[in-house]
Batch of 3 targets.
Target 1
Amino acid sequence: MLPSLVIVAADAPWPVLPPGIHDASLAEVAAAFATTPHRRWLFDGFTRAAGALSLAGCKRLYLDGSFTTGKPHPDDYDGCWDHDGIDFTLLDPVLLDFANKCANQKHKYLGEMFPALSSNGTSGTFLDFFQVEKFSGAPKGIIRITLAASKGPTP
């Protein structure tokens, strides 16, 4: 079960998850955050990305962005994925396309997903980056979703 959202700093515009990595199922994420037609639409894009990553052998995803906050109308979601066990020959190439602010990812999956342990270019890995509230710099939480094994197409 996901914890309630909290205010982590006076200059943070919306409540966020409390600091830490919070485990949740896709159903728990849907119940907590896919609460309006727009949020459901974004969540559907995220579940399509999760399915594509699962087919390539991904075992863990991390979900973040304004989708996981109290922002009434988030623009998209952000997240990252654990590369351990990934067969990159089975991975949708769009999930490795970071050009033009991930335009192709946003078009296909409605959000941005990055390799979790890759450098974000400024402050460590994406997994670290997503655990910082962007307006205040205060620590905040992120959601970890464990995926069922479904590597590769079924014969």
Target 2
Amino acid sequence: MQATKIQSFYKETLNPYLNFHRPCGFATETVDEKGKIKKKYEPYMTTFEKFQSLSKPEQFLKKGVTMESLKEVEQKRSDTEYAKLVQEKKAALFRSFSKLGILT
């Protein structure tokens, strides 16, 4: 029963946040004169922004998914609003566990 709640939180709240609203650095590797690989994490953008920056990103979408439908998901809330929502939903999830005596 708890696994179902956790899976629901991931699918409905956390995964959309990670894909559409949480910025992350994308590494650019360079090799110095000694052969050592150095990584520079720029630019910072969300996973969806990076996906959009690919040439012809539509070719990687599952059947029935469109770029327009993904843009709608991204634009429903701001990054800050979605981060707050994730924290609220996570707190509610953990409160539900404490009511059962799982987390005390």
Target 3
Amino acid sequence: MSQARLTFDAAIQDAEELLWHFDRSNTKPPPPNAEVLKRAGIIMAFTAWETYVEDRVREALAARLGSEGEGPSARFVKRRLDEELKKFNNPNTEKTRKLFQEFLEIDVTASWNWNQYDFTKVKTTLDTLIAKRGEAVHRSSPKRGGPPAPHLITRDELKKAINFLKSLVDATEKAL
């Protein structure tokens, strides 16, 4: 098991704990501020995914470079990766595929399938959830009169997103 996987497992617990707190505060009717826990949960879940991708490509590259890891060519490649990771955010399917392809010559997305998820469904799900994460980060629910606006993410969507990311990490680990 990679160190990146261990870090992901610890980080995804933040999203699970936020979901737990949401469940504990979800009364009938739910308090108006309970929705923030789900938004924070999706943000934390995808922060765990983004960190996993970054750490995993670094880890695999270091293993690939091996004893040559301190030579001039290896230092160049590591600097290039550092530069690329500074610009790397919102790791959707294409960005993740490109990163692993460029630095490891591996298409990790080719292994993204499990149970009822084939590559097409994995891609659609990941890219849709990444977009929701972006909305959660950049758009808060404005307080206004009248009926409450629908929540950005439901409790079940957050639970499914957490489980989806765990499975996605499993599939990525198998690919490497």
